[in-house]
User: Fold these one by one.
Assistant:
Number 1:
Amino acid sequence: MIVIGELGNKRACQAFVDYLSVNNIEHKVEKLDNRYVISVASEQHQVSEQMFTDFLHNPSQAKFLDASWQVNQPQNDSAFVDSNSKTDLGLARIWNSTGWFTKLITLICIVIYIAFYSGYSQVIFNALSFKLDLTQPYRLFTPILMHLDTLHLVFNITWWWYLGGKIEKSLSAFWLINLTLLSALLSNTAQAVLVSANFAGISGVVYALTGFTWLYGRNRPNSDIQLPNNIFVFLLIWMGLGFIDLLPINMANWAHLFGLIAGLISAQILTTNKR
């Protein structure tokens, strides 16, 4: 099952679920606090996502209202799974909250980190570190795949999974891939030119996803791509502390800043073009 979205109103959720039933789409609704998370069979998720987007834009369309009349027996509360009593569903929801590209980058980062501390650190750094060399163009991007300690890896991958998953599931892997490549190129180049090429990590991309998710949500308040202001402010403060050198760790500050700018500009362009 793949999550296609969530609704805060049970009646609205029931109406959409009835529409899924009428269209013979296998589905499940998970109650999470005061929200209802809707999942569908993986082979039907693309058409279901289009239906859900259509429902969000105008839930009063006749086809949605008619669906409830066509369902012989409305679904009872047993169709709404309470996740608080099903911890395994919580893990499944985390797994299903991302797409293949988010998972792939996460796996690559973990594998490289394990290899890095298995005696191949110098080999890996020499092969993947930033180098402005057109004969090895991949090295403009590959620093994002290396992490130098466990905290560095966990912090970055957690935000990558959370933010990248939102973008990939709501827009597509295509948009996430493009944003990742663009922000990696800009943030890596900025850090190398303004400081040095002695850096690693996907944090520049994470800040791009942060800026993108926050501004996209501001411009599209009904979108599934949202980032609370308090989280956005926290990450801005974290970046600021890096610039004034108050943290006990070295940070690629210019990569963070240029990544953030890339994400903000991308979100503004995309939401403007969709209007």
Note: The chain has two domains: 2-96, 100-273.
Number 2:
Amino acid sequence: MKVLITQSNYIPWRGYFHAIGLADVFVVYDEAQYTRRDWRNRNLIKTANGLQWLTIPIHVKGRFYQKISEATVSDHRWAARHWKALQLNYARAPYFTQYAPIFEQLYHQLHQETSLSNINLAFIETICGILGIKTQIRPSTDFVFDGTKSEKLVSICRQLRATHYLSGKAAQGYLDMELFSRHNMEVVWMNYANYPEYHQLYPPFQSQVTVLDLIFNEGLRAPQFSCLQSDKNSRPISLQ
């Protein structure tokens, strides 16, 4: 049983979905503290003038210690603005017209949603469906946990009877490897290097952008550029 535990992000990059596709269960850990100027409420798209941030405005004044699950939208015009930016910059992408109805409807449905977690999860689940990822997704509130960062992660993993815990290498500085080993769990470090380049508008190639860039440009071929093609929990689906 392979388990991934991480925070929700807004329209994440392809590496995020590579990790989800490798897991049997993905636990969305939005009980963590919300951090400003991070990937929780924003991501990058490509434009003719370079990279552009799409940012969901969040109430932050006086809320220094709020959890991601407590973060709320401060301006509901974000949805229309983000969709317009995607239309303007990806209209010429080969598969934009195929996937545009899905995301246009999603942005319309979410424009009055107040919870950042709910918005992120809606996009993550939709994108998993497009990429054919079958991994079970569960909120961290389904589990009982406390203690240090590592103790919380191990507690969730134990409740899922995990044998492997998937993690980004940034966690190497704080994960208690001995604790995982004591509970017969192997930590698997994600390798985000050497992803193949794919067709993009507006050269040069940029890797650190939202996965929507990949989907609009490669369509059903998108999983092979996220190392998902051979993963057991992923199978691309046709939306035609």
Note: The mean pLDDT is 94.
Number 3:
Amino acid sequence: MEAKIYNQRWWLSSCDSESLKRVISADLNRAGFTVLNFVEHYFQPQGYTALWLLAESHAAVHTFPEEGKSYVELSSCAASLLDNFDCYLQDAAAQQQWQVTTS
């Protein structure tokens, strides 16, 4: 078996920590990831970071309120789950009226 990790990154036009946490958590579950742990931190006076420890690797979100956007990164040893997450995130972003840029 070859060790391989797949990565994908997105920029979202939202800094709403509660919406980001809800959407990313739901989309990770829907995509088939196994969430082992979750940790988040609220910065003062503004900003938010959250990390999801996954059986398949990890996901993270970092907000940049001064620019009105957030950075999401997902690493996984399962390319198919990553593709699933991308589809769910694109759908959720459209429903939330967020603009999405893949980097």
Note: The two ends are 28 Å apart (CA to CA).
